[in-house]
Each structure stands twice: as C-alpha cells, then as structure tokens.
Design brief:
Layout lengths: L7 H6 L6 E2 L4 E2 L2 H11 L2 H4 L4 H15 L11 H12 L2 H33 L19 E6 H12 L19 H9 L3 H19 L5 E8 L14 H5 L8 E4 L12 E6 L14 H8 L17 E6 L5 E4 L6 E5 L15 E6 L11 H15 L21 E5 L6 E6 L11 E2 L4 E2 L22 E3 L11 H14 L5 E4 L9 H10 L4 H16 L7 H5 L1 H15 L2
Parallel strand pairs: 5-16, 6-10, 6-15, 15-16
Antiparallel strand pairs: 1-2, 3-4, 4-7, 7-10, 8-9, 11-12, 13-14
Helix pairs in contact: 2-4, 2-6, 4-5, 5-8, 6-7, 6-9, 12-13, 13-15
C-alpha cells in the first residue's frame, strides 16, 4: 500500500477534513484528543450535561483544530443546541444522551483517523483496479466511493460537532455539511418539523451508539458523456428519443403509499436538488429532505459530491433506514424507531438503492420547450440506466433480444447501435468498464472492474419506484413528468415503473391513460413524439388542456359528464 501522503484520493479530500496528515498517518491535534477523551468519560468527568455545555465543548474542540479554513459556525447555532437538548426533549432523554451517546460519539471521533486509514487500505483491494476510496467526485467525474457504516457514522459525528472546514466548499460547489445551520434554524424560527428533523438524526446517533452497523454504503456519480464516443452511452439528442423503437415497460399506479415503503427492491427516486440533500441540513422538509432524515447515512454523500450537472445523477446503495415518520413539510413528525429488515448484497450493503435526479427548477412555461423536455428525459435516463444488467435486458438503444456477451458501437449522429462486437474483439479504450461478472463491456462511467460488479441484484431486473418528480416547489407539470419518467425508464431497459401519485388530483386518471397507451403498444419514440407535439401546442398557447385530456379527449369528456351527473342534486 502506498503511503497516506501519496494518495491522490486522500489529497483531494484533505481540504475538507478536520484531520492532519503526517508522513504516514492521519491524526487529530493533541489538544483535540484531550478534549475528546474528556468527553468520552461521561458527564461526571467532563461536566457536559446540557445543550449549552455541549456547544461550549464543541467550540473548544473547533478552536483546538487551528485550521485556517475553519470558518465560524452559524451565529445562533449555540441557541439551537441549547434549545433542543435543554428544553425540547425530556430530562430522561437528555440524561441518556449526555450519559451514553455523547461519550460514545467522542470515542467514535477518536477512532476516525484509524477508520479512514483502514478505509483507504481496503479501497485498494475492493475491486481490481477500481478506485473506491473517499475522494472529491467532481463534476463530470464518474466514479464510486464505498464507505463502511462505522466510517459514515464517524463522518456524521464530525458534522454534528461542526468540525468540517467549509471555506473551500463553495468554490467546489459542494453542499452544506456541518449541522450548525440545522440547529440555528430551530432557534431563529422554531417549527415543529425542524424539531422533528433533528429528532430523526439524534435517534440515528442513539441507534449506532448502542449497536454499530457493520455494512457498507456506496455513492456513485453517474454521467452521460457530452461527447459522442464509440462504446459509450452519450447524452442523447432529440432524434434519439424520436426514433426509439423500445417498447414501453409495464406501469403500475399507486394512489396511496410511499416510495420508501416499496418492497420489490426497485430503484427509488430521490426528487433531488442539484445540490445533494437540498435543504436537509437547513429548514427544508420535502421529499428529499425527509428521506435524508429517516436515512441519515445519505448525508455523508454531501461531504464529497458537488452539485449535479444536466448530464449527471447520483446513485446511493446501502443506506439503512432508522426512523419512522408521519406528515409532510410543516406536518412532518418523527414517529419512532424503524428496524430496516431488507437483506444485504454481496458487498454487505442494505438492498436499498436510491437515485438522486434534479428536475428543472422554476419550470413554468419553459418546461414545454423541446430543449427542456430533452433535458428532463436525459436526466431521468442517466439516473435510471443500469449497465450491470445490459445482457439481461434489451439493449437500451434498440428493441430486440439479449445482446449477450457483446459490446456496442453507437452511431455518432443518432446514438443508436450500428455495430456489435463479441467481447473478445471489442475495441480497447482507457475508460472501458467490464460489468456484470465480466460478461459485458460498455464505456459508460469511466472506470474498470474486470472481476465483478458493485451493482445490486445481478440476477434480478430492478424496476423504478417514483412519483411526482419536480412537481412541487420546482413547478413541474405532473402529467408531463410522469410520461417523461416512463419513457426514460423504458429506454433504460427497466422492467417496470411503480408510480406513487400521493393522491394529487391531476393524476387521478393516470392508470386509465397508461393502460390505454400500453394497450396500443406504443414505443418510447411514439410517446416522445406525442409529448413534443403536445408541448409545442401548449407553449404556443394553442391548448390549455393537460396532456391526458389533450391525448384522450373522449375519455375525459365522459369522466367530466359523469362527475356532473353525480354532483347534480
């Protein structure tokens, strides 16, 4: 193993970590070690038995770091820590926190240097020639990071103690990571949902301090390359969608229930902000933020994953769920412990797969322009495309049978397959990737694994579980977004879509519309072309109808007539 000081992955992270690097090891400054050792002995020794005193201890540790890039915490964070631990939770809960959890967290921080060193050593051998170590996964840099759940817990403890340097994060377009804003917001403008967000995270810390999980979580940046290259899934043009002859996959509508409760092992869609986590560590409390609260290990990705561009998505596998909840937005409420009973895969990741895709923000009328239709279709396609199963599915580029152990060369104008190569004759490139137990090669995400795949459930076909992506604060048209996700999932060779409408009125006829489309055996190209025609008319104010009513006026006229009859006294 090369020395720690020579590791490029570690070098990329050092400006964003609170540790120091010696000639061959990572370490805390001696004064920090003393402070953490004091905390680890419990409140009778440390005298830290309140939120106010905890924040004072945190401030002392921060001062001892002596890092030039460690900026001051949010001005009223101290008030938030005091309010939560001294007033908002019961004395019994507070006693448990200071007597058991805080000492355990201090011990976890003391182990952070050795946890990171072990992580980097293991990262060299997890895959053959594939970098999986913690590093800054920058824009257009496809790759994957594997973190042990204990290391994730230590990193989140750093965030709770507000120890991460933040001055360089803005220039790298990284999300917020320390918890000072989370606590400041509850002090400056108290809300029940903010209190319950913090309760979810504190419950996570209580759980891991009583029983540390031993699995892994992987974070992958997925990229559709902007340039057209052989053996590459590139960012498609409109002509790609228009000419697609891939059949639409089965579509199942759920008027109740939640994406995270699905039990079919599907890829679950995070309605993301381009900055991963969105307002999770501030005052946000919508779909993405709630998911990050009930599965706090997701927050670790905010440390090293800069914001997503239009051709990028982030897939996270293995994040365990720790909390139950009720409500949404202002009514969000922590409702107790959740024991995640999902199985684990060969890499000891919980079989939960989440993909973060950010929809068009402030969509308005521009969402009906072809440019933005294309942007949304490609964003979803990037998130949904799973190369690990390419030889189990139809090619993502054409209808037909299994491609077997072959590679594809794509036409540079249409991105449609024009030549197949047996694997042993495939052109060799510096960025080729061998996937699916070495049976399928396709340059997609820019790294090589010739012995295995980190992708989940190689034997199974994994569907999509999604809902009203980009249709809340971002202002997307639910009928349009539904169809875009459907065609993207179908083009990505997903076997099915499970769509959760959350009961919104505009999608009450979604099941009838989707079944009508399926009964007429539409292809991806058919649906795309219809969306383009409708959107053009909508943008040019030639129609004010929703897509469903425009597509099937007879069905909707009948429904309107029946509604009028039933409402007549």
């Amino acid at each position: 193993m090369e020395g720690m000081e020579n590791r490029e992955d570690l070098k990329s992270m050092l400006p964003f970590l609170p540790l120091l690097l010696g000639s061959s090891n990572l370490f805390w400054p001696s004064q920090v070690v003393k402070s953490l050792e004091t905390l680890s002995k419990g409140p009778l020794y440390s005298k830290v038995d309140s939120g106010e005193l905890l924040f004072n201890a945190i401030s002392h540790i921060r001062d001892s770091l002596a890092l030039p890039s460690l900026q001051p915490v949010a001005p009223f964070a101290h008030g938030g820590y005091a309010l939560f631990f001294d007033e908002l939770i019961s004395r019994a809960e507070a006693s448990k926190w200071f007597e058991e959890v805080v000492p355990a967290l201090a011990n976890l921080l003391l182990r952070l240097p050795s946890l990171l060193e072990s992580h980097y050593q293991d990262a060299d051998y997890l895959f053959n020639g594939v970098g999986t170590g913690l590093r800054l996964l920058g824009s257009q840099e496809a790759g994957i990071v594997f973190l042990g759940q204990e290391l994730v817990a230590a990193l989140l403890t750093c965030a709770f103690f507000c120890l991460f340097p933040v001055s360089d994060r803005g220039s790298k377009r990284l999300p917020t990571i320390n918890f000072d804003n989370l606590f400041e917001d509850i002090y400056e403008s108290y809300s029940k949902k903010q209190e319950n967000k913090i309760k979810c995270i504190m419950h996570y810390f209580e759980r891991i301090c009583s029983s540390m999980p031993e699995g892994f979580v992987s974070f992958e940046r997925k990229v559709l390359l902007l340039e057209q290259l052989p053996l590459c899934v590139s960012y498609p043009e409109a002509d790609f969608w228009s000419k697609s002859v891939v059949s639409l996959c089965p579509f199942e509508v759920h008027s109740s229930g939640f994406i995270e409760d699905q039990s079919n092992g599907a890829l679950e869609v995070d309605f993301a902000n381009k900055y991963l986590g969105g307002g999770a560590l501030r005052s946000g409390c919508l779909q993405e933020e709630i998911r990050f609260m009930i599965s706090p290990e997701l927050i670790a990705g905010m440390l090293f994953l800069p914001c997503m561009e239009d051709n990028e998505a982030i897939e996270i596998v293995g994040a365990e769920r720790f909390s139950n909840y009720t409500g949404y937005a202002s009514s969000f409420c922590f409702s107790g412990d959740h024991v995640d009973k999902r199985n684990v895969d060969g890499f000891r990741r919980c079989k939960t797969r989440i993909v973060a895709i950010d929809a068009l923000c402030r969509a308005g009328m521009r969402q009906y322009k072809c440019t933005y239709l294309l942007r949304e279709a490609n964003k979803a396609f990037c998130g949904f495309l799973d190369q690990s199963n390419c030889d189990h599915h139809k090619s993502p580029f054409q209808d037909g049978g299994s491609q077997g152990s072959q590679c594809m060369e794509t036409d540079k104008d249409t991105n449609v397959v024009v030549k197949d190569f047996p694997m042993d004759e495939a052109p060799s490139t510096s960025v080729e990737i061998a996937m699916n137990r070495g049976e399928y090669i396709n340059q997609v995400i820019g790294y090589s694994d010739k012995k295995g795949s980190w992708c989940l459930d190689l034997e199974d076909k994994i569907g999509i579980a999604t809902g009203n992506w980009g249709c809340g604060a971002f202002g997307g048209d639910p009928e349009l977004k539904t169809m875009i996700q459907w065609l993207a999932a179908s083009q990505a060779a997903r076997p099915s879509v499970s769509y959760y409408t959350f009961g919104i009125k505009s999608l009450q006829n979604l099941n009838q519309v989707s079944q009508w489309i399926l009964s007429h055996e539409w292809t991806v190209g058919d649906l795309w072309n219809m969306l383009v025609e409708y959107s053009s008319r909508r943008f040019n104010k030639e129609t004010n109808l929703g897509f469903f009513a425009w597509l099937l006026p007879t069905l909707f006229a009948h429904d309107a007539k029946m509604s009028n009859l039933t409402s007549t006294p």
